[in-house]
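Help! Submission page says 'invalid entity' but I think these are all valid:
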Amino acid sequence: MFCALLGPNGAGKSTLFALMTRLFTSPQGRIEIAGHDMARSPRAALKRMGVVFQQPTLDLDLTVQRNLDYFSALHGLSGRTARSRIDEALDRLGMRDKASEIVRNLNGGHRRRLEIARCLCHRPKVLLLDEPTVGLDAATRQAITEHVHDLSRSDGLTVLWATHLTDEIRDGDQLLVLHHGRLLENGQTGELRGGVPLAQHFLSLTGETE
Amino acid sequence: MIPALIALRAIIAREALRFVGQRSRFVAALVRPLLWLIVFAAGFRAALGLSITPPYQTYTTYEVYIVPGLCGMILLFNGMQSSLSLVYDREMGSMRLLLTSPLPRWWLLFCRLLASTAISILQVYAFLAVTALYGIQFSAAGYVALLPALVIAGLMLGALGLALSSTIRQLENFAGVMNFVIFPMFFLSTALYPLWKMAESSELLHDICAVNPFTHAVELIRFALYAQFNGMALLWTTLTGLVLLALAIWGYDPARGMVRRKS
Amino acid sequence: MLRSLPLLSLLVLSEPAMAAEIWVTNEKDDTISVIDIASLEVVRTIPTGERPRGITFSKDFSRVYICASDSDTVQVMDPETGKILHDLPSGEDPEQFVLHPNDRHLYIANEDDAVTTVVDTETRSVIAQINVGIEPEGMAVSPDGKIAITTSETTNMAHWIDTETRQLFANTLVDSRPRHAEFTAGGSELWVSSEIGGTITVFDTGTQTEKGKIEFEVQGVHPDRVQPVGFEFTADEKTAFVALGPSNHVAVVNAETLEVEDYILVGRRVWHMAFSPDKSLLFTTNGVSGDVTVIDVAKREAIKSIKVGRFPWGAALRP
């Protein structure tokens, strides 16, 4: 399932991500990831979650392989298991040939793809991506958006994709519109926008309140 | 291997790789204490010798006296620098990566602490290798006994850095930490002058020095370098380390993080 | 390293049941501190006459002679009991003395009287007084017993005395304020230290002519403070250790090239010194800091300083 979290800058998307990844906790409300309550069993929840943060979190001076090794180890993977999972993840993002390159030498698109590959290493059930296409050119943006849509279809992964760009959202996606920390809409994109282009629909929802 | 140890190994390996990759950082870490040793000790040569205080058995020159203090300085600066990079990391992301691992948070913080301490210890030994070439040598037993002392002192000072980094949100404030934490801790300790020398100038100064945890870290190192054991210094350093570590873990508690963010 | 092992065990075996000691006179405390060489600790403190300085043992170590300067006497003590057996007539203000190889005659420098007094320790009587320069202090007798030396602090001379005739047969100028004189073991050289001059002058014994001069310079210490006083030779005679007074250092001198090879930091105002029986350790008396610094001779390193009485001055080995 691909779920798009759409909201203008400052809508509260990043705060929501911080809460969902347990960088912070809130005394109110409840967060459940793949059936695990974040407050009660946070480690089980984190284990089933792959995250791509808005800011890159790669070690630029290390190789692709080293970056993935490190991440896998943080999730308790080592040895042969880690190696095969890493290869598998690299294959899926078409990055296998880049394994021994220093991250600093990769372009923005490849770095993003590496981060997505990375968060697949521990075979999560849920993928959280916070504006993963920021700073990428149109073609790369298109390719990555397409790729993650594929992942959600072929692997039964639940994807939560935060963005403020309407062209990254397909009609079949579930759509959540967030504005000023409040949920304005929740439903299938195609149904919600009706005949109007999504961009226009989005503007009509969020524009007038500004 | 259990996941906790896999993570520990990876965190240490990452710090080591980053350290090896940043040769300038290594050189800088080595140059600072060497500058002190050569410039400062030469200026205050005390060729006539410093009075005998334990663990010294006889008169020492100033250069010999300040070596353990400079080892402590490496640990102190590294502990703080590592916490600086934590604050930086927190903004930039790699700390996020660490904290979203499905391992207990206190363990992750402890691993990080251990990793930065390991790097500090490498630097201390590199520094001691240079001082040995310069002519200030210690016994083999001293170099061996030093290791556990460095681990304890390094963890304590790293925990101090962690505790500070968990309470400091803005990077700008770190300059303040340098001014208000590192320098007073270093100067108001036995790193540069023995306690009796402090008592000569002011009783208050002596008392501050005597309770400064950095003093105890330095004395622990000093005694170890002479293959001797200082129980008092060990006790103080360990206790302070535990308190600071608890403070750091509390500071990185996600619930508290939210409260701080709101305010 | 391995070769020295049998030697070492031999030393251990041949060690007498009683441990070797270093006896140190404390000028201000009027005591002797006895340091046990094995434990490097003071094991006894023995009262003496006023202002004890020079100290030496009889050949069989059954008696110890002590210059009690302010009591104007040389005391004879039983080292076992620490009891004063009797006093010897010494002339006024005896500071340093030396025991003739005949184990019988003491040559004593009388600082205030400008004389050297020769005392028979058996008859306990003065057998000669020899006029020398002003403020005599350093005393030495050649190994063959034929020559005695007195150095005078104010005249700045080494006076050569024929022990047969008890007459001066030569006077040689040295640098300002000579304090200590010592023959090399073979007797071919005489070394005289000059405190103010800051040098040691080396003489050829046969011709009484100057062979060379040693100068000292301790980095970071004002030259005025570099004041050579007591000195001793290592077993192989290749090295001399020289106490440099208020510079708080002992110089290590190559006895062949007369070059200073090293300086060792010791306590404040180092006066005199004595070796352990195997000459592996050297004990220096540090007047102002009131302690004795132990030097590892092979490593040329100070290993420990032992608190003794106030103003330790002379040192002697009791094996």
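Support: the input was valid. A stray whitespace character was the problem, and the output above is from the cleaned input. Chain B touches chain C at residues 45, 47-49, 52, 57-61 (CB under 8 Å).
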